């Protein structure tokens, strides 16, 4: 293959010596010389100048040397990817996910993953963001998927998707008559919130604090489902991921009201231990998750 000849050429160029290159490649010195001569004949250019002490590249040789290294690197990368296609991915994969991701995004990702890699044993634990980050630090999961931000510094954080947040309420709520409102109109409202430690709760708290909003009263639920049902029943207003409320918005059970001059959103993050090795089962999962996120953006 041409790659064999290119590898001989690159080795001679790096060693600047035919005999040392032959030893490294486990070839005879005449065999190395034949590769170089065939390459020069094919390209119609002198590539190397030989002297008793060393080998020096010509201008044409310098050009080929740079390109040959790139070509060999790409060929090796292609070999690795093709090899991975042949391998059967097995083992186990433990995932910790916060509620919004675990209940509304992860099931579709896992369905695709399980179809492609049926021999991997997958376990999923759903909890709030703080708990998942803590468990990652303790080494309980291979990967965590959480909403919002974390103050943990001893973990690796990677954004895999942006999440749109929406202000929702019952169709009977007084604010539901508006398509958009000034943030100041949220003063002295009743809020339905997630529990402390939740990424959704952290986002709601930040929105209330940065807007200088007074809260008339609040109700706290330990799941997004509870918050959603309470808001639909008229208990108060809530800020939730669009993933959580898209069906209810479509059916009219909930109303969305936009805030003028504000775009509500947050990052969805992959959380991993900094020194944790990534097995093949995890690498394949991350790839499918990232592809899912790309398709989601394309649909927006």
Automatic annotation (TrEMBL):
Keyword list, A-Z: DNA-binding, Transcription, Transcription regulation
GO molecular function, one term: DNA-binding transcription factor activity
Domain of life: Bacteria
Pfam families the UniProt entry points to: HTH_1, LysR_substrate
CDD domains per the UniProt record, alphabetical: PBP2_CysL_like
PROSITE patterns: HTH_LYSR
SUPFAM superfamilies reported in the protein's UniProt record: Periplasmic binding protein-like II, Winged helix' DNA-binding domain
Protein name: LysR family transcriptional regulator
Domain HTH lysR-type: 1-58
Family: Belongs to the LysR transcriptional regulatory family.
């Amino acid at each position: 293959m041409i790659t064999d000849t290119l590898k001989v050429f690159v080795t001679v160029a790096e060693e600047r010596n035919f005999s040392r290159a032959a030893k490294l490649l486990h070839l005879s010195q005449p065999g190395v010389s034949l590769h170089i001569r065939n390459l020069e004949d094919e390209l119609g250019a002198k590539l190397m100048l030989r002297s008793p002490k060393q080998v020096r590249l010509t201008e044409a040789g310098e050009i080929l040397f740079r390109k040959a290294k790139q070509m060999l690197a790409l060929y090796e990368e292609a070999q690795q990817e093709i090899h991975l296609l042949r391998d059967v991915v097995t083992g186990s994969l433990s995932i910790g996910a916060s509620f919004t991701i675990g209940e509304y995004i992860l099931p579709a990702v896992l369905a695709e993953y399980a179809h492609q890699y049926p021999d991997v044993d997958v376990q999923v634990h759903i909890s709030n963001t703080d708990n998942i980050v803590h468990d990652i630090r303790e080494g309980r999961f291979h990967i965590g998927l959480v909403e919002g931000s974390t103050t943990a510094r001893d973990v690796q954080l990677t954004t895999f998707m942006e999440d749109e947040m929406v202000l929702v309420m019952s169709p009977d709520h007084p604010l539901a008559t508006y398509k958009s409102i000034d943030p100041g109109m949220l003063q002295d409202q009743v809020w339905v919130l997630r529990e402390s430690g939740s990424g959704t709760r952290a986002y709601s708290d930040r929105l209330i604090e940065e807007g200088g909003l007074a809260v008339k009263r609040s109700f706290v639920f330990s799941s997004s489902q509870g918050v959603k049902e309470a808001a639909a029943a008229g208990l108060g207003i809530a800020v939730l991921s669009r993933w959580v409320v898209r069906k209810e918005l479509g059916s009219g059970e909930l109303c969305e009201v936009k805030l003028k001059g504000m775009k509500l959103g947050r990052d969805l993050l992959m959380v991993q231990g900094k020194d944790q090795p990534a097995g093949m089962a995890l690498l394949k999962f991350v790839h499918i998750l990232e592809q899912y996120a790309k398709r989601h953006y394309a649909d927006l």
